[in-house]
Fold this protein.
Amino acid sequence: MTRLEDAQTLLGHRFAQPELLAQALTHRSAAGARGVGSNERLEFIGDRVLGLIVAEWLIERFPKEQEGKLGLRLAALVSKPALAAIAEANGLSALLNVARGEVKRGVAGQATVLADALEAMLGALYLDAGLDVVRQFIRRVMGGVMEQQFTPPKDPKTALQEWVLARALPLPDYVVEATHGPSHAPEFTISVRVGDAVRRGEAGSKRAAEQEAARALLELLK
């Protein structure tokens, strides 16, 4: 019960349907057979709600920018690393319901798990309270990140390619390593290699997974 109370304090909302929040905090490892009762469904809707609210915010904040630059800003703000950093800064890992064995492996602190849980909480908040309440929360926890975005970030794949070309290195090599999940919501794992350096990315589309992999590899190379 303390977990739910702390989560409601973080979100700034008292749930009429606390079971939604409980589900949002439940990792697949602690759910029923085949992940029934986990936060995956709420993550699905939370991802869409987050994208809408951040897109709306960007249109408001940068009224003269065109779609291309806005898209780069949006991708950076809602990326897994960005969301994981926000989740970690707000102590979300301590609120997650994770199977005991997975706790020992540090699953609750993994970036992908934290990002997914944050999106699931947004989904639960939306279903319980509506868009305005979610908007208030997002603007509160993402305000600092938004303020720091003075110029549009570069597309990670483009930035990685420019980095290797400037050093006469071989072009990045992207490989689809795995595809899992249902057909309506697939999850892709893609690796990118430059020389001996390799990093992986996971996302719901090949392009997004490539971007995550490129972002991770660029951080390593730099």
Summary: Strands lie at 173-180, 187-194, 197-203. Residues 31 and 38 are 5 Å apart (CA to CA).
